[in-house]
Amino acid sequence: MVTEKEGGVRAGIDLGGTGTRIVIMENQQQIAVAAMPTALFDSVPDAMRSGRLAQKVRELLPAGKRLISLGIGASGPVNNQTGIIENNDTLAAFSYFPLVEQMQQHLGVPVNIDNDAVAAALGEYYLGAGRGSQRLLMVTLGTGVGVALLDNGKPWRTASGAHPEAGHIPVGGDSPPCYCGLEGCWESLAARSWLQKALHATWRDEPYDDLALPYYQQRCEADPDVAGIFARYGRHVGRGLNSLLTLYGPDITLLSGSAAHFYPLFQPGMASALSRAAGYAVNKQILPSQLGDSAGALGAALLYRLERAA
């Protein structure tokens, strides 16, 4: 089998509820990347989806490069034993069929899959802001809320070996029941969708996805209502973080996902929700992802390292 020293490259796929990103990595350096809406696959017949996804990977391979592995980070739940995504709520197009097995057949290489937050955490641990961390907490604020804890580079699992869906914890507050069954679920209040809906209710003519951070900074300075929305969102994020920081005690916490772009705007609200009495303080070393939108896909390409460490 071709090795990295002989020109082999690794691919990583970040399968999110809204967007899909594919990267090709050579010697831990990104050499090609493509992004597309996940909805693109909704119109593809079920039996052809894995083939279409494999085609996207092949199209991205630079000339003369040989693929040696593929990793997939997917919006969970993901069954680590069967390699099957079990997420009809936000990733129905790729759920409940043997995606890993089919991708192995299409591409002829080993394929690993895990929760997208685990993938993002691995990306930061090896290539980004998490280098040198002994206990890294990663929280992705996207279509949903994903959480992963790396203990010396290894994902924390439940007793059954499953990945804990810690984005679905009760934090209280005024929110309708989440699809997970909880009222006051953290994901219902801290996912990008809450922020997007709140901003849309304030002004309906602005395209949320097309506006960058400087625009929102100006709006916050000019409009107290907009600043208040980001403060509320920060408090929502902080409520869940308070529980996780208390239980896990990480040395660093990283925030990724599309909503993390607005960290400077919601950080004050988040900090207020993390305020505690002396003796109960949590580690407030909380930073945005260094790798940004690429963290999940780059980390997915590194999932093969978990097999080596097992």
UniProtKB/TrEMBL annotation:
This is Glucokinase. The keyword Transferase applies. Belongs to the ROK (NagC/XylR) family. GO terms for molecular function: kinase activity. Keywords: Kinase, Transferase. It comes from Chimaeribacter coloradensis. CDD domains: ASKHA_ATPase_ROK. The keyword Disulfide bond does not apply. It comes from the Bacteria. Pfam families: ROK (PF00480). SUPFAM superfamilies: Actin-like ATPase domain (SSF53067). InterPro entries: ATPase_NBD, ROK. The lineage of its organism: Bacteria, Pseudomonadati, Pseudomonadota, Gammaproteobacteria, Enterobacterales.
